Amino acid sequence: MDSRPLTVSSTTVRRPSSTVGFVRAVGAVAWKDLTAEYRSRELFSSMLVFSLLVILIFNFALELDIKTRQSVTSGVLWVTFAFAGTLGLNRSMAVEKDRGCLDGLLLAPVDRAAIYFGKVISNLAFMLIVEIVILPVYSFLYSVNLFNPGLLMVILLGSIGYIAVGTLLASMAVQTRTRDVLLPILLFPVAIPVLIAAVKASGGYLNGDEFSMILPWINLLIVYDIIFVAIAFMVFDYVVEE
Amino acid sequence: MIEVKKLVKRFGMKTVLRGVDFDVQPGEFVALLGPNGAGKTTFLRILASLSRPSLGEIRVAGYRLPSEAAAVRARLGVVSHLPLLYGDLTAEENLRFFARMYGITNYELRITEVLEMVGLSARRHDLVRTFSRGMQQRLAIGRAVLHDPDVMLFDEPYTGLDQDASSMLDDVLRSVAAQGRTVVMTSHDLVRAEDLATRFDILSRGVIAASVTRKGLSRSNLLSFYKQALAN
Amino acid sequence: MINNPNRPLRVFLCHASNDKPIARALYKRLIANGIDVWFDEEKLLPGQYWRDEIPRAVLDSDAVVICLSKNSVSKEGYLQKEIKAALDAADEKPENTIYLIPVKLEECEVPYRLRSWQWVNLFFDGNNFDESSYSKLLRSLETRAKAVGAAVSVAVQNTSVNEIKKPDENKTLNEDLSLNMKQAILQPEMKEPTPKIYEHNKRLTQNREKEVNLISQKPQNIVSKNIATKPTGQFSPQNKTSDKVEDKRDSKPTTLKVLDIVSVLLLAVSTYLALIYAPEEATMGQVQRVFYFHIATAWVGMLGFLAAAVAGIVYLRTQNPKWDIIEVAAVEISLVFFFITIVLGSIWARPVWNTWWTWDPRLTTAAITELIYIAYFMLREGIEDPDRRARFGAVYALVGSLSVPITFFSIRLFRTIHPVVIGSADPSATGTFDMTGGMQVAFFFALFAFTVIFIDLFWNRIRMGNLAAKVEQLKLKVMR
Hints:
By secondary structure, chain A is an all-alpha fold. Chain A contains 8 helices and 1 strand, in the order βαααααααα. Helix content of chain A is 81%, strand content 1%.
């Protein structure tokens, strides 16, 4: 084996500068997750198949005839997204924990919040991709038109809040003895406001309600997103550092 | 390079480290030996800024821990018994990711260099999960030296390696140490430690119980020294 | 450091703040004998926090001299906190390297934690120490100095020798101090002790002619003893009298005992007011009487919820395990009281709205809070490392405390916007009533009574948490 001297040729190690370093680290974490996922597609396929199965079960459980559909579509969609979301969150954090990669991330001279935001971006991307696939499938199966810019915005806002708090709690859950079992138990009770608001706002758009009826829910989603992104930003250090 | 004074680490009410004093000069290769539960891994995790000391003062490469952890991290390379690598990325992609995390510019050249050094150039486009344990460990070392750290920490690097893989790792470790880097390694493997290190410190019951340099140790009696230190 | 043969012996002098004058005299005597004494007055600069400095200094010393008096062991058996901090730090040192010398400044009980060490009687008459017992203390320090390779100059009997030796001693002393400064552990600048010592020693020797009182019944050879080898007989019942100090320390504070009784009485009175005194409500009948305790328990649940959130934030900021104990106490109390609230709410709902459960915002929020609490305990259950358990608990308590108000708001929004399908789920519709005078008395008294009960339970629970922590600590000590 070649063991020639290791010198730093044209390479320079930069001290992490504040903003540039932060953005670069966020990008690196997200890029790493997306590349790995693009290659294995484990997460995406399991989330997608799981979502389709949930919708299938709802079909028989709720007898989704035309009249019922009107009122329950948004609920069915959000329950599906929430379940698929926990699946993705668990997997994405377990990958970090299993091979000690979390330590690898923590050893890098970057702000811990950068790691959090990187994971949020990749988790959000997985969830949105699944949602984008599920929507047309649902429209096709039940001939409901789901292509409504308002609805897409609600889905985005709801997913941000759900993933923001979910990433924080998943990082805690993977460090416990019970691991993945714990995540839904931790996440669902604190994610209730975001689910209620997302269901009501999506339902509002699907029923063609007036915007003034939907606005309070959208405001609630935005408030929730801001509060929980901010709080996760502040406490993530305590979750990953010893 | 590393200065530790009166380091105390508690987990809840359990005290693992009870006032460790530890100094490493630049270029030294220190093997940290000790029985299970002596606090070796805890100590190394504190040096690696992954765990906070309860009391005491630590300087690594001239920076204080934990207050200047970011500066320490930039000068520190860590290899543990876990590979700290992503199985679904190729060898090259793993290194590229860590190069970005460490803020290295022109990293492509550096990656080629490192891959060559650890003997994995031919497998650079293969997924890490297809690698053998020994190859993963070599790549892990490549990952740790990527940013040309001044201080290297090895935590039981030989865990789970067979004879061939271990001797290959020896070569890599030697070439890493030959750069004038300061190295601290924990190990159970006294024979390998004796081959590699220039100083042997024995951690027992939360303190450095004994310390001897290679010069102070006549050939092949590290084991008796170790036993004696633990008996005291 | 240990191999420097000429360095002075480093001694940590630890005392209750009330014994300062005596301790100062002892400090001056010791320093005159060429011992490097850590004395808080000299070494602790203003602004330095003793809680941080004492452990460092203890770890840095070769021996710890603990001055005992009636002041240092309080009536309740509590050690003064400075002494306690020093002892805690001494426990951190590896076995056989701790060297404690309890020094009795007057006749007093030796605290439980120090029983395994030989003590020295060094009674002080206001001006002077007894010479022979002082030299005994010095001899034991000498033994220690030999063991660690440090120097102590032998006890001197007259002034002249003392004065002659002085410059030399101070040189070594100062050298060592500057060494300490380089280590940067202690403090950046240090007072020069020389002139003061000189003066004081002169005065001491002049006064030495005065008669001093000495009571010394114990063998004086001081042996470094291991905690693990201490006779276990101390835990047996026949030694009860000698453990009085320890028992007192852990016994229930009188205020708390009184509060327990007051709580029970208040609960009894409140029950009477709610069930008998308050007039029957016209439309709902007797079942309305549930209301008084329903609201009061909900109020206690809220108090616990707020206390948990505050304790969580403080814990994250200070990392002091005390706040973790408080947080768990608050969550437990809140969990129980919200549960009672929900049960009472159901009892009320059944006859009034013909259903056991209404999706009333308040009741639903209470139920979701219960789920958060259950998740909280499951999270804690799954973590071994106590620090991490506390950190994660605090983070989750914080997340929960932010989410619950938003949940309440969103359910209320849900109810107001959502068309009312079957009957009226809103308690303000059918469940309202006007409170008459008697009802008001019962209502506000219940609120008051339950607030007191909350404080009592909270206090008891925190005390229990502290005791559990202490048991854990003792277990570790025995196992070591």
